Amino acid sequence: MARAYYSTLFRQSAPEVWKIIRDFNNYPVWVGGAGESRIESGKSGDAVGAVRNVLYQGRNIRQRLLALSDVERSQTYEFCEAPSLPVTGFAATIRVSEVVDRDGAFVEWWADFDCAPDRQAELVATLRGWFGQWLESLRAILEQAVPLAAEEN
């Protein structure tokens, strides 16, 4: 089993970051390139088992929310259909933790999956890059919403 992992720090507090990520249907709000999204079968965006049908760069992608924890500020999801990458057994988790000394947030995003051994390094790098790109778009949204005061020297 392979794991693609990315982490970063945010100047915003963990509750501020989690507020945006928490709703599984909020993907288009913070992921650059994501278009319209809807939760199927009338479920809410925080219901475990909810299926998100999102348009991402011209493709419809269906993902199922496997777990959501407000205590751990995390959510885990899988693809409902074969993903666009040559992987199987894909499950991804995004988690937001508090950075106490600066009232910031530590955000981790990882995916575990199986793939052909000769493609593992490439697929790990691809997913790591996408996670980083999407978290940078989240950072941009957060900084537009509430401009932060200049840090003191």
Structural description of this entry:
By secondary structure, the protein is an alpha+beta fold. It has a single domain, classed as 2-Layer Sandwich (Alpha-D-Glucose-1,6-Bisphosphate, Chain A, domain 4), CATH 3.30.530.20. The chain has helices at 14-21, 27-30, 120-145, and strands at 2-10, 34-39, 51-56, 59-69, 74-79, 88-99, 104-114. Strands 1-7-6-5-4-3-2 form a seven-stranded antiparallel beta sheet. Strand 3 and strand 4 form a beta hairpin. The longest helix is centred in the C-terminal third of the chain and has 26 residues, at 120-145. Mean pLDDT is 92; it is low at 148-153.
List the helices and strands and how they pair.
Layout: E1 2-10, H1 14-21, H2 27-30, E2 34-39, E3 51-56, E4 59-69, E5 74-79, E6 88-99, E7 104-114, H3 120-145
